[in-house]
Structures are given as C-alpha cells and as structure tokens.
Amino acid sequence: MDIEYQLLFFFSALGAFNGLILSAYFAFFIKSINRVTYFLSALILVISIRVAKSIFLIFYPETSNLFVQIGLTACFLIGPFLYIYVRKTINPSNNKHWLLHIIPLIIGMVLIGCFFPYSENRYLWKRTSFGILGWSLSILWLSYVIFSGVSIKRSFRKLFDKNKKISNQDFWLLNVVIGVGVIWLAYNTTKYTSYIMGAFSFSFILYLTILIWVFKRKKTSLFFEDKVKYANKRLDNSEANIIEAKLHRLFNEDEFFKNPQLKLQNVANLINEAPHDLSEYLNDNLNKSFSQFVNEYRIDEAKRLLQTHTNYTIEAIGYESGFNSKSTFFTAFKKITGLTPTAYINKKE
After folding, report:
1. 3-class SS at 14?
2. What's the CA gap between 286 and 332, in Å, rounded?
3. Which of 122, 188, 260, 318 counts the most CB atoms within 10 A of its CB?
C-alpha cells in the first residue's frame, strides 16, 4: 500500500475509531449515565461499525464476510437508534415500545445472515433491480431520519425564528439528526461520488459537531457573530406567560410541590410543555433551577406550618412540606431563610 493509499485509509478510519471511543465514553464513563446516554452510545456504535465495515471492505477486499455481515446488521439499526435517542431525549419518561423498533430488526438480520449470507448473496445488497436488502436498508434508514426530524420540528422552528432562543438540547438534537442524515446522503450518492465519502462524512460530522458544541458550551460564537445581539434572548412573552399561569395553578392551587418525588419531567408533563422549554423558563426568566423553584414553595409551606402546627415535630413539618428527608429539609431551609427551622421558630417567638 503506497503512502497516498495509507493516508486515505488512515483518515477514513480515524472517524470510525474515535466513534468507538466516544461510544464507550457515553456508555461507561460520563457522570450522568442513564438510558438516554446508552441510546446515544448505541447510535454512535452502530454508525462506527457501519463505517468500519465500509473502510475495510474497500481497502481490504478479503475482509471476513462475518465482519461484513455484522456491519450490515449495524446499518439496519442506525435509524431506529437515532429515533429512539431523539424521542427519549425529548421525553425521558416515555418508555413506550422502544424494543419493538430494535428486536424485530435484530431477529430479522440474524435470520437473513443464516439463510441468505452476504458471502453468497451480495447482489441482494446492491441498490439494483434485485437488491431488495440494499433498498430496504436505504429506505429504512431514511424513514427514521425523517421521523426523527418530525419529532424535533419545534427545534427546527426555533432555528429559523429570531424571536425564540434555541436551547442546548435543541441545538444538540439538530446536530445529531442532520449529521446522521448527511451520512445517509453520502452513502446513497456513491453512484455520483465515491463510496469512501460515507466514511469521510462521518469523520467530518463527528469532529465538526464536537467543535461546534465546545464553542457553544464556552458561549463563544463560532462564526464571530455579534454576541450582544443574542445575549438576552428568552422565551417570548406569550410562551412565558402561559408557563407562568400553568405553574401558578399547579403549585399554588393544587400544591404539587408536596410530592417528594417531583421532577422537572413530571411537571413538564403535567403542564403539557416540553421539558427544555420549562427549564428555559425557570433558568432564563426566573433565574432559578428547578430544585430551587420547588424548594421555595416547600419552605414557604414549612414556615406556615411552623407557625400554625406547633404540635408537629420539625421533621414531620419537613415531610408535610414535600421534603423526603430531615437533612434535605434542614439544608434547604437554611439556604433559603438563612436560619435553621429551630432558629426560625425562636425568632418568631
């Protein structure tokens, strides 16, 4: 292999190799591992396997047919894992039927591998008149990219609406969906370009996404736009007023803050708002985190109970106010009032 060929192989394989590393990172090493990060890890993994299969098949035609078969199985899983990741990111509590997107495909690919192995039926994988599997793969992948795009249509609208602020979650999901769509496009235009463009596009999308994300996290403009212009963007007044009214009813009238297991996702579901929109409202409009917002209601209730229910123990008042432990109650009370519950009682006396 001459030097030009070696360099071509190196840069083609670089994205696949780093994709595998990134997949392992999301699966095992980040602090906030949850089901959503596992799906992101799975998505990056299957794309990396698909890209690696293409690279070795091009540069080493004698590559094991078993490895190629595994790569083709990974191809079928890219679309479903993308869609599941997007849906779980938007609504983490939604556990509906995600296995139905994965298990049938895995079973189907195992059966295809047994009865129609790639080594003996390569014509089925070509996008020709007889390439039923090749066309099925292409259509399935594209369909899930479209479904994922529809799922984040609100994020797309924010992207083109100057009056709405795009959140980090919106920005990330747009990058992921568009990136996977570009990779699909690269692999499905090989008739006009080159099959290796799929590998190159994956490397490019991977590093560009990381680069843009780093710039965004540092609040630095990648394209050197006027920072002041976008510095104070928040939810527009009508959206903020709607969320404010819903929260007022939920917390002041229905007293949902007394639920000790209350989470941002629960509240978002109850008021029929996207979790990231609720988070934006609290952070940008009220300058509060979700826990701070809820704890202020709980402490107000605790202060009322301390004055009216003198026969209650302090611990009981903490539980009545929505806290799930004595230590959490004491910590929150001291943080918000500057006093311990006992000191607060003595001060009132």
Report:
1. helix
2. 18
3. 318
Identify whether the C-beta of residue 127 lies closer than 8 Å to the C-beta of residue 142.
no
Query: Which has the closest alpha carbon to 163: 235, 223, 231?
Result: 235
Question: Which of 267, 270, 266, 290 shows the shortest CA–CA distance to 280?
Answer: 290
Write the single-letter amino acid at 192.
Y
- Long-range contacts: 82-86, Cβ < 8 Å, 24+? 82/43, 82/144, 82/145, 82/148, 82/176, 82/177, 82/180, 83/144, 83/147, 83/148, 83/151, 84/39, 85/36, 85/39, 85/40, 85/42, 85/43, 85/176, 86/148, 86/151, 86/152, 86/173, 86/176, 86/177
Spatial CB neighbours of 321, under 8 Å, sequence gap ≥ 6: 257, 258, 298, 299, 301, 302, 305, 329
Q: What is the number of other CB atoms lying within 10 angstroms of the CB of residue 286?
A: 14
Global pTM value: 0.60
Position 30: which residue type? I
When pLDDT is averaged across residues 240-254 and rounded to a whole number, the result is 88
Closest to 198 (Cα-Cα) out of 6, 1, 13: 13
> Using CA atoms, how far apart are residues 48 and 199, in angstroms rounded to an integer?
9
DSSP string of 176-202, one letter each residue: HHHHHHHHHHHHTTTTTS-TTHHHHHH
Q: What is the pLDDT of residues 234-246, one digit of tens each?
A: 566 778 888 988 8
Residues 66-70: contacts with CB under 8 Å, at least 24 apart: 68/118, 69/113, 69/117, 69/118
Per residue in 136-172, pLDDT (tens digit) is 989 999 999 999 999 998 888 877 876 666 777 788 8
| Residue pLDDT, tens place only, 95-142 | 667 888 999 988 998 898 888 888 888 888 887 788 898 899 899 999
| DSSP annotation of 98 | T
Which residue is listed with tokens 């940008």? 284
Residue that the structure tokens 């609208």 belong to: 157
Q: Which amino acid is at 45?
A: L
Label residues 288-315 b or e (16+ Cβ within 10 Å = b).
eebeebbbbbbbebbbebbeeeeeeebe
